[in-house]
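Protocol check, entry for the methods section draft. Step 1: assemble the input record (protein sequence plus ligand SMILES). Step 2: submit for complex structure prediction. Step 3: store the structure tokens unaltered in the notebook. Ligand used here: zinc ion. Step 1 record:
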Amino acid sequence: MSGSDSLLKPPCDFVKLPKTDLHVHLEGTLEPEMLFRLADRNHIPLPWKNPEMLREACRFRDLSAFLAIYYKGCEVLVTEQDFYDLARAYLERAAADGVFHTEFFFNPQVFCGKTISLSGILRAVFSAMDDMRDRISCLYLGTVMRTRPVEDALRTLDELAPWYDRIAAFGMGGAELGNPPLRFKRYFDACRERGFRICVHAGEEGPAEYVREALELRVDRIDHGNAAVHDPDLMRILAEKRIPLTMCPISNLRLNVVRDLAEHPLKRMLEHGLCVTINSDDPAYFLGYAGDNWSAVSRALGLTRSEILQLALNGVEASFLPEAQKRMWRDRIRTAL
Ligand SMILES: [Zn+2]
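Step 3, stored output:
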């Protein structure tokens, strides 16, 4: 069996597929074991007795139920070493999973005003990225919480100014319903004025209208975007403009955005010419890294070889990598497949 055959015949070995992970939250890569280790190191009390109990608690009703546990987990991140360990562990795991390029969100709003300074946090995260540079390419995406006032988002954008040369884009996440993208127009306009690309979580729990609002903001990329599948006109616009959607199938399953992966809109959107991609979101809490998402969705949707190739190439197209690197990775993906 040739290399390309073993890559795609069941059981598919997606670890060997060169792939991207463009929608992942660094805080959401905190594995239960590390969470307990850091809680112990920093003397932080936890509501769970052990990692197994935490895993058991990760049966989420919806996005809000997940976010409650996610923010509780963030409390154990206290020192520079904690942030370094977290970033390093994610990058090592992603590299071992066949991810050649990742773009991760990290929200400093969650941690600022606590014991560690913003410069301490970012020094740790950037050190981990630099130390792993030979094994995985990585870009940092600044992000803010949509549940807070727009003034907070603008303040965070200002506070990050000393590190603008290390930030590839700015985004927005958090509980979506009732917090439409246009409410943050001033923040996104400010990001664009400063020369940044922008991405927005939209159409995960929210309606197709939120995806339309994201387009009004002139986004470079939409995170999730599932709800667009209900709006044929919007699908046509997304396909024509090739606005990428960073979809996260296992996250959608765990948060009941889809009842079954077989109902996931990714394949239909791909057939309609949209630039859809496969990503991990919060892999430690949703029990699925990039390779797991590729395997699960490929099985559930019966993806063909050419669809898998197109999805991998979409990941390169959707990335914020320079064009020369995109060309190199397209060649490598075609060779691998
Ligand atoms: Zn997300």
